[in-house]
Amino acid sequence: MKGISKFISMIELAREQVQYGYFLAGVTRQETSNLAEHHYLVTIIAWMLCEYINREEKFINTDEVIKMCLVHDLGELFGGDMSAPLARKWPDLKQHALAFEQGNFNILMSLLDPAIACTVKDLWTKESEHATDEAVVAKIADLMETHFFLEHRGIQNEQKDGFYLNHIRPLVEKIIHEQIRARANEFFDDFEANIKNKGFTPSQWIME
Known about the structure:
Elements: H1 4-11, H2 35-53, H3 62-71, H4 84-89, H5 91-109, H6 114-129, H7 133-152, H8 158-168, H9 178-194, H10 202-207
């Protein structure tokens, strides 16, 4: 049980760590989410995706996808994230940010029993490297949560649309399994038909 309580206590910081990388997308400080909210919503999206993918036959390991989502941004716990547009414009800065995240992640892992830390690190690494279909689905959920958030906040600009078209939807091509890839494309088609560039929509559906 080495460090479990300390690790959980440390993870509580996710409530306080603001995702300030949204600022360049036009989101104000008052509108930003925190790391805990992001992790929760990414996990919900990923779970629903897995349920949809596996609705007739099990094609993807839901347990692994969910665990990847729960740990994917732990390296941001002590300093937040870097804006995606900034990272694309200056990739050398992104390398420094990744090194910072790796250091933060290592600090967290040092609190855990080595065997548990190894399991968490393996999931974290797979997700960051898009090493499996499970990792790609987790990454799709991660980036789509960002896009749903921007829609929720009514953010409309070329940067948002370009990020979706050039960096989110193309992730489907990294999926190896044909059935998983097909279901992921169906998800994106549904998003584009019902959510994309429509702003905040839940109240419309409730009142229909």
